[in-house]
């Protein structure tokens, strides 16, 4: 081959590589200046959501799995006014009264599990079993399953949450473990309804076919959309579950599986699942080289995720001065004060241990129920707060003190 021809081939190859690597960045910049990716719009809701709680009626219930442990609730507003749209991945907050109107309500969050529709919202709830024989089963989930029939009324706060589909026109990897699949369903249904052809990988980890939800719906989507890459992972398949037909992978959703099945390119990752899955997958993705900004995740309960720290300045790496002294926490309204140390856990757990009256709901920084006035001092958060925190306040369920504090409790 002549050297001129060889030089031409090399030049073309380099040009192709430059385009391939630059394209995601170019597309990303485009999306920031408002260019639509062609999907169902994933922009911020237009109408202002309502303040406080709004009354809804359960217009339909649907059991979603063979085990009968997961049920969807379709919710229509009693006032009949159209529902504001939401961002796929967001959740609703409920005030539930299993003990009757005279008892303190339970506040719980449930993800919206379908794409936005003007006439109803949908949530999908898993019945929570007792964590130990001496403990009661989950109060809200069992109440919803057993005592909230079609026609029942529920008090609901407007859609909220920072875990939602981003507008970036990149291929999307959705990873849902167990009931953590619910926000992924909302994202998936939104992405596919737009018909843009944007590539979507769905990894759904569940024990077996009895526990998998929305089998028929997922199968129909898989058949209808060549741009959907469905990976059902059963960790404990039953004899009736056929590998390669009912499910694709034996085992959990883990990094080796992602590495074996994803092409080498840039994606937006969305992860929601049990604590063990989150604590291995999210740092695993970062170690694999995925930019932290391309990994979005949510935990349904208290989870402390160790992210890879950004390179710390040299001075910060010097050995510390030794164990930190306990912090003094003053509860101004109760006129009490006590010493906190790391073994005491979150400020919510600490306040409860001191028998200080404090409201709480999700215990994971989502519902905002425990929001408390921070009268003096500063707090750190063990995970990013999802609820919007008013100035001068903190969320004790995910906060620890940075020094002495005065709380308005
Ligand atoms: C943003 C967000 C979205 C969510 N989306 C969904 C969703 O789409 N679908 C869904 O099903 N769930 C979802 N959840 C979880 C949901 O909000 C509830 O946490 C879940 O339903 C359990 O609530 P519960 O009242 O039934 O259980 P709880 O009454 O809170 O009990 C939970 C567990 O604690 C145990 N327990 C009770 N007392 C004690 C004790 N003293 N010590 C130790 N353990 C005890 C119980 O036995 C039970 O196993 C979401 C949570 C968040 C934060």
Automatic annotation (TrEMBL):
Residues 51-166 form the FAD-binding FR-type domain. GO terms for molecular function: 2 iron, 2 sulfur cluster binding; flavin adenine dinucleotide binding; metal ion binding; oxidoreductase activity. Its cofactor is [2Fe-2S] cluster; FAD. It holds the Pfam family Fer2. SUPFAM superfamilies: 2Fe-2S ferredoxin-like, Ferredoxin reductase-like, C-terminal NADP-linked domain, Riboflavin synthase domain-like. Keywords: 2Fe-2S, FAD, Flavoprotein, Iron, Iron-sulfur, Metal-binding, Oxidoreductase. The keyword Heme does not apply. This is FAD/NAD(P)-binding oxidoreductase. The lineage of its organism: Bacteria, Pseudomonadati, Pseudomonadota, Gammaproteobacteria, Chromatiales.
């Amino acid at each position: 081959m002549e050297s001129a021809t060889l030089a031409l081939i090399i030049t073309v190859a380099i040009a192709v590589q430059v385009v391939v690597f630059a394209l995601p960045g170019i597309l990303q910049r485009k999306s920031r200046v408002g260019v639509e990716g062609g999907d169902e719009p994933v922009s911020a809701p237009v109408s202002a959501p309502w303040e406080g709680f709004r009354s809804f009626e359960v217009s339909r219930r649907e059991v979603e799995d063979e085990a009968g442990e997961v049920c969807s609730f379709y919710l229509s507003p009693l006032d009949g006014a159209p529902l504001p749209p939401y961002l796929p991945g967001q959740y609703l907050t409920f005030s539930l009264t299993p003990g009757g109107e005279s008892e303190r309500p339970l506040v719980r969050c449930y993800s919206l599990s379908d794409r936005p529709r003007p006439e109803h919202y949908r949530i999908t709830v898993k019945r929570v079993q007792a964590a130990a024989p001496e403990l009661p089963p989950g109060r809200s989930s069992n109440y919803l399953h057993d005592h909230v029939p079609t026609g029942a009324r529920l008090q609901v706060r407007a859609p909220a949450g920072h875990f939602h589909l981003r507008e970036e026109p990149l291929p999307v990897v959705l990873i849902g473990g167990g009931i953590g699949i619910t926000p992924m369903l909302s994202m998936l249904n939104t992405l596919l309804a737009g018909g843009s052809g944007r590539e979507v990988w769905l990894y759904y980890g569940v024990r077996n076919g009895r526990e998998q939800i929305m089998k028929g719906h997922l199968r129909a989507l898989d058949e209808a959309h060549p741009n959907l890459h469905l990976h059902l992972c059963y960790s404990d398949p039953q004899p009736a579950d056929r590998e390669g037909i009912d499910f694709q992978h034996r085992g959990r959703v883990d990094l080796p599986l992602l590495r074996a099945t994803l092409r080498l390119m840039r994606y937006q990752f969305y992860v929601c699942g049990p604590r063990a899955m989150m604590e291995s997958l999210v740092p695993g993705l970062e170690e694999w080289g995925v930019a932290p900004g391309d990994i979005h995740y949510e935990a349904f309960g208290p989870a402390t995720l160790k992210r890879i720290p950004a390179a710390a300045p040299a001075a910060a790496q010097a050995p510390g001065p030794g164990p930190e002294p306990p912090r003094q926490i003053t509860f101004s309204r109760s006129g009490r004060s006590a010493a906190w140390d790391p073994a005491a856990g979150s400020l919510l757990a600490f306040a409860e241990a001191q028998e200080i009256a404090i409201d709480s709901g999700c215990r994971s920084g989502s519902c905002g129920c425990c929001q408390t006035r921070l009268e003096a001092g500063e707090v750190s958060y063990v995970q990013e707060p999802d609820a919007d925190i008013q100035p001068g306040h903190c969320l004790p369920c995910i906060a620890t003190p940075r020094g002495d504090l005065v709380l308005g409790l």
